[in-house]
Write a structure and sequence with these properties.
heterodimer; A: 179 residues; mainly alpha; 0% strand; B: 268 residues; alpha+beta; Alpha-Beta Plaits; 4-stranded mixed β-sheet; two-stranded antiparallel sheet; 9 helices
Chain lengths: 179, 268
């Protein structure tokens, strides 16, 4: 092997290894953090610091199948006052993210939130029924209030669902979830 | 040991232990006009693929409910008769024991359930169904964004290679169940209506709990005109048809023009 080919081989190896490491690091941090959202919405600020109830924003959770992500109108209920120019918002990160929200509102553009909990198409989950049975949101979603970026904490695969249904004497007929 | 003993003593006349609910339907053929509203409603409710011409010509069209037309009488006195045919939700279903992966089974509410995510597409069930109520997906759905907007979000879009059939609109049963539960109530008579029943303009189709003696469907099932399609097969269906046998069917029109109209439904 000539010194030239040796250098090229080593160079190529370094590049490949580097890419692999970068890939692995992003994969691990993504998995640990959940997907990046168009706006860095912080549950820590809303839930932990300001003590807002889940149902205040996820309004449909007690009455419907979907918990629902609030419309921008609902964000703006508060953020018209608590906007990026409000003197009480001192954190520059918060200012920047609220500015994004206000921009969406002013341009009348919806926010394309990235779905965190993805179920296969042949599964139907009804939030209302589970809330009615007395479960806390955190049973499945974990302590969202302490998450800077929401991530999935439970596997939520069929074994997970069925095990919980059995523990709680809930029906396990296939048609309960698969229709 | 105790459990095993109980298991041997269970009532073997019924395939599955009942929970006081057995969904069934009564189809009053003397009322059916063959308008196909049930077919349209079923297609819309259950995300059934469009049956284009080439699909129909290949005899691969999917219709969870169809109107079978047949003729009664002899020319020139021929009468068109209609018979809605769909999954009969047999209590002794021929489709169930042949499935190698338990993708079709009988649940405690008397429904013959098809579990799409279990199905591997052997098609044994369809071959064994005497009612031609099961349909195989030969193609993947080609849905653009516009067509996705038409879909019923409560019903799975079936993929290529699996079997599908009438579910008695189980999504509606489940929805009524949890909506009642929200108010701490039990499911009541009349809560659940499959799409075909809802669409039927002549009240031909009646749906309900056959185990509840007071339900309309159970009372109609006791009607003198009742029969089950291919009863001799012993499938013990949960769908009961009502039909007055017309003794004058082959007579000429003028001879019985009056009698057919005023003989009423129950005098067969």
């Amino acid at each position: 092997m000539t010194p030239r080919t040796l250098r090229i081989t080593i160079g190529a190896l370094v590049v490949v290894l580097g890419l692999l490491i970068i890939g692995a690091v992003t994969w691990v941090t993504q998995a640990a953090d959940g997907p990046k959202q168009p706006i860095e919405f912080m549950h820590t600020v809303h839930v932990e610091q300001n003590d807002i109830d889940c149902v205040f924003c996820h309004r449909n959770v007690e009455t419907g199948a979907e918990a629902t992500i609030p419309a921008i109108e609902q964000c703006m209920m508060c953020h018209q006052i608590v906007n990026n120019e409000n003197p009480k918002v001192t954190n520059p990160l918060h200012q920047a993210e609220i500015a994004k929200l206000v921009a969406h509102w002013e341009n009348k553009e919806p926010i394309d939130w990235v779905r965190v909990h993805v179920m296969p198409d042949h599964v139907r989950f009804v939030h209302a029924a589970h809330i009615k049975a007395g479960f806390d949101c955190a049973t499945c979603h974990g302590d969202v209030g302490s998450m800077e970026r929401v991530k999935q904490v439970r596997s939520l695969n069929m074994g997970d669902c069925v095990a919980c249904h059995r523990e709680n004497n809930a029906p396990t007929d296939c048609t309960i979830c698969h229709r | 040991m105790k459990q095993a003993a109980e298991g041997t003593e269970q009532d073997t006349s019924k395939p599955v232990a009942s929970i006081g609910r057995r969904w069934g339907m009564v189809v009053d053929l003397d009322r059916c006009t063959g308008c196909q509203a049930c077919v349209v409603a079923c297609h819309a409710e259950n995300n059934i693929a469009l049956n284009l011409e080439d699909v129909v010509l290949q005899q691969r069209a999917i219709n969870w409910i169809r109107i079978e037309r047949y003729w009664e009488g002899e020319y020139p006195n021929v009468k068109a008769r209609f018979l809605p045919m769909f999954c009969q939700h047999c209590n002794n279903a021929p489709c169930e024991p042949v499935c190698p992966v338990y993708a079709t089974y009988h649940n405690q509410e008397g429904l013959n359930v098809q579990v799409y995510n279990r199905c591997i597409g052997t098609r044994y069930c369809a071959n064994n169904c005497p009612y031609h109520a099961r349909f195989f997906n030969f193609w993947e759905r080609d849905l653009d964004d516009t067509h996705r907007e038409y879909l019923n979000p409560e019903v799975t879009v079936r993929t290529k290679g699996i079997m599908e059939k009438c579910t008695f609109c189980v999504q509606r049963i489940r929805r009524s169940e949890w909506e009642r539960r929200q108010a701490d109530e039990e499911l009541q008579e009349g809560d659940v209506q499959p799409a075909c029943v809802q669409a039927c303009p002549t009240d031909t189709l009646v749906f309900g709990n056959l185990e509840d003696e007071n339900s309309r469907v159970a009372q109609l099932a006791e009607n003198k005109r009742h029969y089950r399609v291919m009863e001799n097969l012993g499938t013990d269906t949960n769908v009961i048809y009502l039909k007055k046998v017309d003794p004058h069917a082959s007579e000429t029109a003028p001879a019985h023009a009056g009698t057919a109209a005023d003989s009423g439904g129950n005098s067969a």
